[in-house]
Amino acid sequence: MNYPEKEYPLQKESYQIIGICMEVHRVLGKGLLEVLYKDAIEYEFKNNNIPFEREKKYEVEYKDIILPHHYFADFVVFDNIILEVKAQKKIVDEHYAWVINYLAISGCNLGLIVNFGEDSLVTKRVIF
Q1: What are the E-state strand segments in the chain?
Q2: Which residue segment(s) compose the domain that 16 sits in?
Q3: Per-residue pLDDT in tens (0 to 9) along the chain, 128 residues
Q4: Cys staple from 126: which of 22, 83, 89, 99, with CB 3.0 to 4.6 Å?
Q5: Is the pTM of this model over 0.85?
């Protein structure tokens, strides 16, 4: 089912990413460390020829300086989707706030939060 692109941007791309995450969850299940899920996602992105950057570094500007600490996105996929990977009991409000800030800093249009810490994969879309 297709929704209006204005309200639900990057549908095709987000479905591809979610499909890959579902495959990773199907094979690995729940309860592992986040880094292991990220490794498996990277493997799937490469095998499916999906353009991505892992741990992409973003500098944060404050007034007339660049702050000494940086933000590292788990993944930037298709150059405009932030993929935030979690392996916790549930997605909480704090995760949404992080992704909104990440979108503002990165200039990306869409954020996906995926949580591998539950019986079924949980995904949330965040539009900036």
Answers
A1: 52-62, 65-77, 81-86, 110-115, 122-127
A2: 11-127
A3: 566 666 667 889 999 999 999 999 999 999 999 999 999 999 999 999 999 999 999 999 999 999 999 989 999 999 999 999 999 999 999 999 989 999 999 999 999 999 999 999 999 999 87
A4: 99
A5: yes
